[in-house]
Design brief:
It is built from 7 helices and 7 strands; from the N terminus they run ααααβββαβββαβα. With 198 residues, it is α+β, with helices and mostly antiparallel strands. The chain folds into 2 domains: 5-81, no CATH class; 83-175, OB fold (Dihydrolipoamide Acetyltransferase, E2P), CATH 2.40.50. A hairpin with a 2-residue loop joins strand 4 (127-136) and strand 5 (139-142). Helix 1 crosses helix 4 (72-80). The longest helix has 22 residues, at 5-26. The protein starts with a helix and ends in a 7-residue tail after the last helix. 25% of the residues are buried.
Length: 198
């Protein structure tokens, strides 16, 4: 239910310099405080992330100028974040391979970074959260900050969510990637008209 440590390292190797760049450009946090692992503490990262996700031009300039000298793969990862999904989600259930986030129109199979969502959200589900979901290759992660709303839900809401989840599954609307699906290659045999050969 989370990325491998090496993949989480790769994600933060892009996000850390991107946040530093945004903070330098906009002077959001005067003296950001890094944790032992080099990531910013949540109260410093949150306002910088808000500015980053509100203005794609900052990320575009970062990619074009590449002040951190990132390789092509890392820049492609940053570029893919234009396909992010920002919003309010119900965290419905922790499965073995992912945690299911529900929106009105879709569900998302999301992986944690260094911790699973079961570790980050250990209380009873569902819970309502504000989050930014990001593509990480063909998987979905968050930007590292999950804001949980202090709300509880009665049996009526739970049943409504259960129905919504069933409908999303039936409609094939549970997504495990935020990237566009590749177009299927048509099978030449299936394209031939059926019937007897002349």
């Amino acid at each position: 239910m989370r990325l491998a440590d090496a993949d989480a390292d790769r994600f933060f190797a892009v996000l850390r310099p991107l946040l530093a760049f945004v903070n330098e450009q906009r002077r959001i946090v005067p003296r950001p405080v890094p944790r032992a692992d080099g990531c910013l503490v949540a109260q410093d990262a949150a306002p910088i992330l808000d500015v980053l996700w509100a203005d794609d031009s900052l990320r575009d300039v970062f990619i074009a100028e590449n002040p951190a000298q990132l390789d092509a793969e890392a820049l492609a990862l940053a570029r893919s974040w234009d396909r992010r999904r920002k919003g309010t989600f119900f965290v419905w259930k922790h499965y073995r391979k992912h945690t299911l986030f529900l929106a009105d129109d879709q569900g998302f199979a999301v992986l944690g970074l260094y911790s699973t969502f079961a570790e980050m959200l250990p209380g009873p589900l569902p819970v309502l959260v504000d989050a930014v979901l990001l593509p990480f290759g063909d998987r979905i992660i968050s930007d590292g900050l999950i804001h949980m709303k202090n709300m509880t839900f009665g049996p009526g809401i739970r049943e409504n969510l259960r129905y919504r989840k069933r409908q999303l599954v039936a409609n094939g609307a549970i997504r495990s990637s935020l990237l566009p699906s590749p177009k299927p290659v048509p099978n030449p045999r299936s394209a031939r008209p059926r019937g007897r050969r002349p």
